[in-house]
Backbone:
């Protein structure tokens, strides 16, 4: 593993995207940054601009309005950038599966790297999901192939 | 010639100031974390951030490509030159030149100007709001800062050479232990807070309303350079203050102590004050702070 990948795993800047969530997942995400969990210990920071992002943390059921914007945001993020689906809504659309305004789950739209199930997922689950994402980054690098969009 | 290049690139220029600055950035994050009962990042955190950013993709907007990419280096070059001059003056070994104080004052404006140029070149509306705020903030804090430096010049019997100012204090005692010196020090400390861009004056980066404001379109290496600029400012400005006001004893141990003191005050102000609006900040700087600075100048003329 080269130096830059190692640095990447030590400093993940997360951009938080809500694609029609009920806001509970988002609260749990913010919980990770409170004194009790403090993910800044691992260099994880929440940032405001998608140009600085290393990870997109996506919550919500992907309604029709959100899909084109989601694609646009992924296109704007500098690569390498991991995509984390957070909450059952983002994984499999939860109770909105048969709704009129959600068509397809997130992983049909973007290449999702890590799934964090739960409604909402506990902060512990989110942290363990991010750690899995780090493992995935290392693995990608070891096999010498970068993910294409 | 080789010595000059070494001074510029390694010690006390680029490499040295970058390392100290990044450590100071870590200290800032750690102190903030401890004040909020968090654990905070490990000491290598800011180095990891910079190295990571160099490995990321660089996205450039289609407007003004070259200006956008060159702007961060403009700030870095000026800043490193300033640290080289200041470091020389602090060690009393590199011969300065007459008027290097004035040069340093100008060089310290470079990072702000590079931010304004870069943000305006990026063509993003949020960045242009950030740029206009940054411009107003520069106008606001430069006046009291220069007044407080004038106080120092008056007290040092009209010397505009950093070495002479240091020598004067070595023989007659630090300026901070006089009325006018103390007032000027307080004014300069507040201005420095705005120059580094820490809360309550982080108006141009305003994480909550402008989403990183001036830096919004930057990614990869240019963003790393901007972060580095900020880190070096965090080292260079306390050094500047030390030379102007606290230069009685410049042995390494004392310098470290003075740095820690200044950093602690800055970080505490940062953590206990919410962000001001830009009009409040301008009124603050042009009102009470400038009056205080003028009082300092008058006291200095009276010889207090
Ligand atoms: S997964 Fe549950 S908590 Fe999260 S957005 Fe969906 S309904 Fe809300």
Residues:
């Amino acid at each position: 593993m080269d130096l830059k990948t190692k640095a990447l795993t030590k400093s993940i800047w997360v951009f938080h995207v809500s694609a029609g969530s009920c806001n509970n997942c988002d609260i749990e995400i913010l919980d990770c940054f409170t004194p009790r969990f403090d993910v800044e210990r691992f260099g994880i920071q929440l940032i405001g601009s998608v140009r600085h992002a290393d990870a997109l943390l996506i919550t919500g059921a992907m309604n029709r309005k959100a899909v084109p914007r989601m694609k646009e945001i992924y296109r704007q993020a500098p690569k390498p950038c991991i995509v984390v689906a957070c909450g059952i809504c983002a994984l499999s659309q939860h109770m909105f599966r048969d709704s009129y305004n959600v068509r397809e789950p997130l992983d049909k739209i973007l290449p999702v790297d890590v799934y964090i199930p739960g409604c909402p997922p506990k902060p512990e689950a989110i942290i363990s999901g991010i750690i899995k994402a780090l493992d995935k980054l290392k693995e990608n690098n070891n096999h010498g192939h970068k993910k294409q969009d | 010639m080789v010595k000059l290049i070494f001074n510029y690139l390694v010690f006390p220029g680029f490499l040295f100031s970058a390392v100290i600055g990044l450590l100071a950035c870590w200290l800032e994050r750690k102190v903030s974390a401890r004040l909020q009962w968090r654990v905070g990042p490990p000491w290598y955190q800011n180095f990891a951030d910079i190295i990571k950013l160099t490995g990321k993709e660089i996205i450039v907007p289609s407007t003004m490509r070259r200006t956008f990419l060159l702007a961060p280096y403009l700030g870095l070059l000026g800043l490193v030159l300033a640290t080289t001059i200041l470091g020389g003056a602090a060690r009393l070994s590199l011969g300065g030149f007459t008027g290097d104080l004035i040069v340093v004052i100008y060089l310290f404006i470079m990072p702000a100007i590079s931010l304004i140029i870069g943000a305006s070149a990026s063509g993003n509306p949020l960045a242009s709001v950030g740029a206009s705020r940054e411009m107003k903030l520069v106008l606001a804090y430069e006046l009291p800062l220069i007044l407080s430096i004038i106080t120092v010049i008056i007290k040092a019997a009209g010397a505009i050479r950093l070495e002479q100012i240091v020598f004067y204090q070595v023989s007659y005692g630090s300026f901070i232990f006089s009325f006018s010196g103390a007032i000027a020090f307080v004014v300069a400390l507040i201005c420095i807070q705005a120059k580094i861009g820490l809360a309550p004056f982080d108006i141009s980066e305003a994480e909550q309303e402008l989403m990183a404001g001036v830096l919004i379109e930057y990614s990869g290496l240019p963003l790393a350079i901007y972060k580095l600029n900020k880190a070096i400012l965090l080292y260079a400005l306390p050094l500047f203050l030390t030379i102007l006001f606290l230069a009685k004893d410049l042995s390494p141990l004392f310098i470290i102590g003075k740095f820690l003191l200044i950093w602690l005050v800055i970080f505490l102000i940062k953590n206990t004050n919410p962000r001001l609006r830009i009009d409040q900040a301008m009124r603050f700087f042009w009102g009470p702070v400038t009056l205080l600075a003028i009082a300092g100048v008058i006291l200095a003329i009276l010889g207090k």
Observations:
- The pocket of iron/sulfur cluster is lined by residues A 21-22, 24-25, 59-60, 87-89, 94, 119-120 (CB under 6 Å).
